[in-house]
Design a protein that fits this description.
mainly alpha, 0% strand, 4 helices, globular
């Protein structure tokens, strides 16, 4: 339970910290964009069971595949998509840390 709560708090806090660090003028807007990237978790609807707190998302769900992560990294090179890319990469990093926490 603690792991799940910590994981969810980090999904809101870390993008907020990144927005404050990199986008001081418009940090609230950029934070909301990065929070919106949690929509990538809709790919969990394709899995059975939909939610399994003991499953590592990285490499399992389509939006969490290594190919998708590579695409998210490439988006950093496009200034208009950089915030979206940063949000997705933060999301993937946090999901990866959850996998490490599980011992996977």
């Amino acid at each position: 339970m603690i792991r799940t709560i910590t994981h969810m708090v980090l999904h809101f806090a870390v993008p907020g910290i990144a927005a404050r660090l990199f986008y001081r003028e418009k940090w609230k807007k950029q934070w909301l964009v990065m929070i919106f990237t949690m929509i990538v978790d809709l790919d969990h609807l394709l899995a059975t069971p939909v939610l399994d707190i003991n499953r590592c998302s990285i490499g399992f769900h389509p939006g969490h595949s290594y190919f998708a992560i590579g695409v998210y990294a490439c988006l950093l090179f496009f200034p208009r998509l950089r915030v979206l890319s940063l949000g997705l990469l933060i999301h993937m990093f946090l999901d990866y840390t959850d996998c490490v926490w599980m011992g996977m």
